[in-house]
Amino acid sequence: MVALPFEGKRFIGWYQGDEPISTDARYEFTVTKEVSITAVFE
Q1: Residue-by-residue DSSP string for 3-37
Q2: Start and end of every Bacterial repeat domain (predicted)?
């Protein structure tokens, strides 16, 4: 996945629930179960 912020925003990180899992805009993983991952911007 790749996070691309709108103008004036910056990418904070990828989160699974309340837990940060990466601060890199590009995040790769292998899906082994249902999961919800959120890109957070400010």
Answers
A1: --PPTT--EEEEEETTEEEE-SSB------S----
A2: 2-42
Answer whether 11's CB lies under 8 Å from 26's CB.
no
> Which one-letter amino acid corresponds to residue 25?
A
First to last CA, the chain: 18
Question: Exposure of 14 by Cβ count < 10 A (0-12 exposed, 13-18 middle, 19+ buried)?
Answer: buried
The string of pLDDT tens digits covering residues 7-18 is 999 999 999 999
What are residue 41's DSSP bridge partners? 11
Beta bridge partners of residue 40, listed in sequence order: 13
